[in-house]
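Support reply, case 0932

Customer input (verbatim):
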Amino acid sequence: MGVDIRVHMEYRHKKNHRWIYYDKEFQTYRCYGLFEMLGGLTGNVLISSRGLPDDATPETQKAYRGGGYCPSWITAPELRLCLDKMYSKYNIEYKSMTEYELIYRYMQDSDDEDEPSRLIFWFDQ
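Our regenerated output:
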């Protein structure tokens, strides 16, 4: 048994500025080095928990009703910061983090100059 992360991406509609669900929950593997930076699971938090956004999409809200703890969200630059910090702290190679790097690229591609995408996540066991 261990801790898992549930990851959902949302981005802003360019015209009406409403949040849009990215289509699916990302399937990721356990990476406790990243988890500690995102949720402070070991006390070494880099991005403090912000809670589930009040304006989260209905799809994200429905997924969260299944339970979880330490809900929060981050932007693409914040994810990049966490990944880079984790790589240097734990001497992890970029190639071993392909799912998280792919999520980062999706976020970058969805970002608008004024309307960044966000990655909403929470932990469960």
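We compared this against your earlier run and they match. Two observations from our side: The chain is about 35% helix and 25% strand. The chain has a mean pLDDT of 86. Please reopen the case if you see a mismatch on your end.
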